[in-house]
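Q: Entry one of two.
A:
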Amino acid sequence: MVVRRIDKRSGDNAYISVSVSKGSSDLYECLSNMYMILSILALSHVGVVYVNAKCASDLITMGDGMCVAIKEATDRYCKAHETCAALSQTTQQLFILIGLNHKLLDPNKIPTSALFTWTSVSDVLVHRGKAKEGWRDADPRNLLYASQLGDINWDDEQPDGNKPVVGLKQPNLRAHDIQLERIQANVVCELIKEATLETPRINQFKANFPIKLEQEKNDNEISDACYQRLMEPTLLKCSFLCNQNIQCRSVYHNLSQKTCVHILYTDARLPSAFRNIAGEWKRGKAKEGWRDADPRNLLYASQLGDINWDDEQPDGNKPVVGLKQPNLRAHDIQLERIQANVVCELIKEATLETPRINQFKANFPIKLEQEKNDNEISDACYQRLMEPTLLKCSFLCNQNIQCRSVYHNLSQKTCVHILYTDARLPSAFRNIAGEWKRYAKTSITVMKPID
């Protein structure tokens, strides 16, 4: 749930510790970095309004009723995107450069004056080399999705591994990886039928979304994505302007240089033009996506405004929220060696009872890219038991209202209960031999009305 208002009290301790933490990931937060060393912040979705629409007379119908507009060929990938974005502004309907729906195109309806047709499918976020899967397109409806085997109609011996964009080659529109510019290609803009343009809603920004990047700066200009550079002094204003632009996918901000970079159309690493600029590039500190110990909704993670952050907080390298005197503004603080008050909240509408049978699921609340924590300063609270079976390990967690998830190692007969707030496997177990299996409670059914 959220951080609740606490009456201000005087006292010697500078902080009040609360149960909000980054102990686990959710759909909108870092998938593998518990204590938020944040340098990239990406839109987790793009707000669109859903409507019903049919192909207009000035559009071309392709397979499955897909509507497209075929525009003048261009020799630059970003210019192809700009063409479709301009069409969106003119029609107030959302058009994107054709992406993973390219298999619905009819080759007989594509001009033959250019050898290739641009697509928005690229590997500018994560280099894929010769991999036939893991490529992403410009479709804003699911920014988490990366292609799977069969999604792209690759030609023989493709991709060849050294170019960042997918182009469709005549005459049969088979996919090749091609360069970002200096290649003349058709522009096909796909209409997103169920969407229309509007001033975007407030979108969630998350660090390490859709994945954690091992390398955030691009070092090769031949794979630079489309971007816009602005001079903005704050990350907040940089992010706000991205939110107002439906074509913006992510932001990079350099505080010392007051430089804001908007990545357009498809998410990507920081373009190579900025790699040698002094100062730290950040996507900011995630002020949302934190969890607390409230058992009434284990899926909930904080949203913007839920936590009363102090200025310049969180600083990004500590895993727990503490409230600092005198005004109880939120700071991220370390797990120990800091003296802090303890405030216990009564859940009025609940009473303790022997827990009912709770459902356990793997990959809840989402699939974790990294289940083991590798840094002891961000280890969550846990209990270690010697139990031979996952069933018994889970049963005992079910009996403990404070238990949130279990990790079990069959070969070592070791059971680990994660307590109070869900988290990754503590670092003390990271080098233990054998496979660890994780299951988390999907609900904690201990609530009943009090007479």
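Q: Entry two of two.
A:
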Amino acid sequence: MRTVKGLVLRLWFPKINFQKRRFASSLLYPGAFFQLPITQLLLLLLLVLPIFVNGQESINEFEVLANEYLNQGKYKQAAESFNKSGYDYRNRGNKRKAADVFEKAYKLFDKEGNDNVSIEISNNLGIVYLDENKYANAYTAFSNTLKHARRVKDTTEIFNSLINVGSLAIELSLYSNAIDKVNEALGIAKERNNNKYLKECYSLLARSYERIGNTSSANEFYKLYSIIDQQINNIEPEEISSASNNKFSILKKERQIAEIRPKFKNGELRLTPDSMARISQLLQQMLTQIGLRNSQLRQKEIQLQYEKHIRRTLIIGIIVVLIFLVILGFLLRQKQLYNKILKQQKEEITQQRNKLDVQNKKITDSIYFGLRIQQAILPRMKELNKVFETLLIYKAKDIVSGDFYWYHESIIDEVTYHFIAVVDCTGHGVPGAFMSIIGNRILNEIIIERRIFNPSEILIEVNKLLRRDLEQDNNKTISGMDIALCRISFNNGYNELAFSGAKREIIIYKANTGTQEIIHGDKLSIGCLTSGKTNIFNETKRDIDAGDIIFMFTDGIIDQPNIERKRFGTERFMNFIAENIDSSMDNIESSLESLIDNYKESEEQRDDITVLGIKLK
């Protein structure tokens, strides 16, 4: 890449060598100092000294000034100051900083649309990137130069930019791009008939084709390169002679200036070889001291900048820590207050929960005590089992039930009557349990005390007494009962069933025929009838024989849903009876209970369930 660097710098260095203060670098070039006339040497020394002494401060001034312009919105002045700062940084060897400020200057001038200045800055930026061996960045910078050169139609800059971009494209292995750019440059060289331009183009084309393996094209361009190189070498003696004549002319003018220079003291100032050597030695010492001072100033500035950065970092860090501590303290305080509130709320909740637990236990204990009372008023199944074979499923939705069953036996004129009722009171749980106690007492009063034996009359009286007790003539609250009431009479081998129902039905299985019959009650509920009406409940009678089974049940089993929200239904119940009728009453009871549990699965029990089966012996 040394060839690319040399080529690019050679194409552009004449421009940057004559920028502001740039001539100072000429004095530091080895041997340049003693090739100048004494008068120019002294003059240049006087001009250079302030630059070396104040160079450090100038760099700071350029950057500060550029940032001030930038903050004021003066983009053109800011770009010029950034450009000057870039030159100074590059002269000091700070390539990274130079690249940064050249980038800023280029963006500002490109934004302003100043193509001529953008050409200069993008070239400077490309050279800095070349010094840092950042070829891709240099390629982008010189491509920008080419863009601006095309806009202003500067043929020389277009040629130089094409050569620079083509050279970097070769190093970046962009051979097709390199060949395109160099061919375009070759066209400009041919138009101008410039052998140096042609020589550079032929050299780059030969290298490009050699890299991609096109040997024939590479050899062809190497031959053209050799021909042009030989032509240039034949012209060089004339150029050397011309250069010598120019140098002689310059020396002659210097002598003329020295002759008219003011004389000091008594005559013309004469400089002997010894004095010239002494002056040269003195100047060399001065330059050495200046260099040391500049180095010390740079080190001091670096140290000051470092200390300033450390102080700024410490201050920012302390502020951040303080802010963090304040926020942390605030959050901790808030958390403490929040925890305190939570603790208080938790204690209150715990106290309330304990109170609720105590109250719930009292209520639960009371309900269980009510359950014992309810169970006490229910008939003993052993009394029924003396006369019938029975099955009973009695499942409360809650602890106590709104369903109840009732039984009483009476003998009149050698006829034995067995009264059996299954009752579904309004509601379930505690309200239903209270209603069941009322219903049980009313049945006792009507059948046992007042000895009314016709089922239809019994239901009429139950309706009257319930409305009386609940005062439902004056109270719009509707509380009632659904009753299935059977009277089974045994009279010298003749058995008869008399049934009346309030919104309840029964199923009779006839053993001799193997058939089932469902007998519906009236569609009126106890407690909902208008006071004073009579003979509104029908009574149905059937002959029954040994082996016949009567199923009495509340609507809890019929309306029980499963997880798909489908009712158990009367049809399913009757199918179960038909499938299990040959089993014993105990087996039918356990099978039906299992069927109900399996049917509802995880679904909640909807209502109290009561099923009473009576089989004649």
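A: Comment on entry two: The chain has three domains: 1-39+53-172, 189-233, 378-616. The CA atoms of residues 112 and 599 lie 86 Å apart.
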